[in-house]
Each structure stands twice: as C-alpha cells, then as structure tokens.
Design brief:
Helices cover 36% and strands 18% of the residues. By secondary structure, it is α/β, with parallel strands linked by helices. It has one domain: Beta-carbonic Anhydrase, Chain A (3-Layer(aba) Sandwich). It has a five-stranded mixed β-sheet. The protein binds zinc ion (ZN). Zinc ion (ZN) binds next to loops.
Length: 169
C-alpha cells in the first residue's frame, strides 16, 4: 500500500525532529540571505545550493519572479527583522533555471494569466522576459535592485540538465 504524500512526509518529519530540536533557534538566518527561486520541484535551494537548516529565508513562486507579492513579502520580512532587532546586512539571491515551466506559457492563451501574475498588461508583457531564463533573471535582478537600495541582489542561473549554477548578475 502506498502512502499519501502527506503521510509519507509526517513519517519523514518524525525522523528529523530530534535533529531539528538540537539546532540553533536564532531568529537570524546563519547566511543572512534571502533566496527567491522557482517553485519547481527540481529547484529546491536546499538541494541545488546546499542550504542547511537555518541558513536562509526562502521565497518561492512560479519562475522565482519578482512579483508584487514578493515585494510585499520582502517589506514584511524587513519589518520583522527590524522588530526583532536583527543585525541586517542581508543579501538577496534570485535564482532562475533552465527548462522552467513558465517558459511554456508563452502562447496567446496564457497572456492574461501571465500579465496579471507579473503585474503588467497583455501589451506590457513584451517588456517582461518569460521564455529565456537568463533574460528573465537579468530583468528581475534589475527590478529588485531598483527597489531595495543598497541591499546586494545577486542573480544565479541553475542549469537543470547539468546540475550547475552560474552567477549571471
Ligand atoms: Zn521554474
């Protein structure tokens, strides 16, 4: 009998609870990093970047895109850090990847959905790269840099086929 995913994950979590109990419970991530990346199951930054427990704050959405929701999330995270009097100096890492499912939404039937998601109009989509991950990464890093002032924003491209990560920005 196969387990449901949630049942399987409950078993796995029970096997990890003792290790988690022994970890640092600092509210400050060890690497002082926020990683924004795609929700794709192949792109988990714990696996791709080797993030360990407590290393970084991770935000994920389709494409790892800098959407209005992400900007609002970063504002709330910044407020939480201020309330908790964390030391600051966070680096934001944006990671896009090859073979992203978003690249398959380039047809006319998805223009409305994509425009809404990316905070633009159907005509405005021409200015927002979706198909080429190097272009979408450069676009989003530039957009985020314009919003966050002196906070470093780094752009990484993960090649799913080779398993390698390259720094583009
Ligand atoms: Zn993706």
């Amino acid at each position: 009998m196969s387990l449901l995913a949630s049942d399987e994950l409950m078993v796995r979590s029970s096997q990890r609870s003792e290790r988690l109990r022994l970890l640092s419970h600092s509210t400050e991530p060890a690497l002082k990093a926020v990683v924004l990346t795609c929700a794709d199951h192949r792109v988990d930054p714990a696996h791709v970047l080797g993030l360990e427990p407590n290393d970084a704050v991770v935000l994920r959405n389709p494409g790892g895109r800098v959407t209005g929701d992400v900007v609002r999330s970063l504002l709330v995270l910044s407020a939480v850090a201020a309330v908790e009097q964390l030391s600051g100096g966070v680096e934001i890492i944006v990671m896009h990847h090859t073979d992203c499912g978003m690249s398959r939404l380039g047809g006319p039937e998805h223009r409305g959905l994509l425009a809404d998601y990316l905070g633009t109009t159907a005509d405005g989509l021409a200015e927002v790269p979706v198909i080429d991950p190097a272009l979408s990464l450069r676009h989003d890093v530039a957009a985020l840099r314009a919003l966050v002032g002196t906070t470093p924003v780094i752009g990484l491209l993960f090649d799913v086929g080779s398993g390698t990560v390259h720094r583009l920005e």
